[in-house]
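Page 37, continued from 36.
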């Protein structure tokens, strides 16, 4: 039996540390002591022969191996939790969806471009009484806006929240290199040539850590930034007309490739993917419409951003 080989409760601890980015906050969420959480992680580290988390400042950042297996762990735990709930009342949900309601979301523009086409095509066709009102929020605004019920759901990168804010990994953002078609770097793609050219950087509101620069620091390399802006579409529009390079999330890059004369290529160095989470307040946990929308967004995330 599986429980004779490994304690399944260890995965609940792993999920809490991953979501909270902190052993202290994970311990508080699970009502355990910090040594108990550390001991659980130690057992899993020994089992997988992987550090699972490394400390970066005050945060516990998941290793690449841990990031890769978290979607399966989240899915498995969710399925186990669902067995404790009664069968959903489909007729009751349909009755609720037939009532006019606006769902307020907090998404960055890049995530709107990825999630909204499949989401809204489904809603307009099958649930026309449900509307979507979306605007961008900063990471610092996520908890207060959810608590004050100014937004119903937020999708953004991993950030610490209190235990009253629920979260779930929805997808991982991987990075690609963007440049004009026939750019010289495509003939010899390496870190040295990557450093040689000028770069555009998109700085997201509320974000203080640049994952790409952190990855480059391992090579002792930095970028010559000639453009810093807030929107990838603007930076990509510049990159397709000159030799400036742009590093951006792959899913959105592929979408822009259909509209702009750009080339999309793998990076010549490894950048850890950014885990993207969905957040909602515990008061919305049993809201049938909120739960219905969460499931749709989760499905889209798994399909578009595996």
């Amino acid at each position: 039996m599986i429980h004779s080989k490994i304690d399944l409760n260890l995965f609940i601890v792993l999920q809490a540390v991953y979501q909270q980015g902190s052993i202290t906050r994970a311990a508080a969420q699970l009502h355990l002591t910090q040594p108990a959480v550390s001991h659980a992680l130690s057992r899993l580290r020994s089992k997988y022969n992987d550090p699972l988390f490394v400390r970066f400042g005050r945060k516990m950042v998941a290793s690449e191996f841990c990031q890769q297996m978290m979607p399966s762990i989240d899915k498995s735990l969710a399925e186990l939790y669902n067995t404790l709930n009664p069968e959903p009342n489909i007729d009751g949900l349909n009755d609720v969806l037939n009532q006019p309601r606006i769902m307020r979301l907090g998404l960055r523009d890049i995530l709107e471009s990825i999630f909204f086409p499949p989401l809204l095509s489904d809603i307009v066709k099958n649930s026309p009484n449900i509307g979507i009102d979306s605007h961008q929020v900063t990471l610092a605004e996520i908890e207060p806006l959810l608590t004050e019920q100014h937004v119903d759901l937020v999708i953004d990168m991993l950030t610490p929240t209190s235990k009253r804010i629920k979260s779930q990994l929805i997808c991982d953002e991987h990075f690609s290199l963007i440049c004009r078609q026939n750019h010289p770097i495509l003939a010899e793609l390496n870190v040295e040539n990557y450093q040689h050219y000028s770069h555009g950087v998109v700085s997201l509101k509320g974000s203080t850590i640049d994952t790409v620069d952190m990855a480059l620091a391992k090579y002792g390399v930095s970028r010559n930034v000639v453009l810093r802006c807030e929107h990838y579409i603007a930076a990509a529009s510049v990159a397709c007309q000159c030799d400036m390079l742009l590093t951006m999330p792959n899913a959105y890059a592929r979408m822009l490739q259909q509209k702009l004369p750009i080339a999309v290529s793998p990076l010549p160095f490894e950048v850890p993917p950014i885990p993207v989470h969905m957040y909602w307040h515990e008061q919305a946990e049993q809201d049938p419409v909120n739960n219905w929308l969460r499931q749709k967004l989760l499905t889209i995330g798994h399909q578009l951003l595996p």
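Residues 54 and 61 are 5 Å apart (CA to CA). Flag for discussion at group meeting. The first strand starts at residue 53 and ends at 56.
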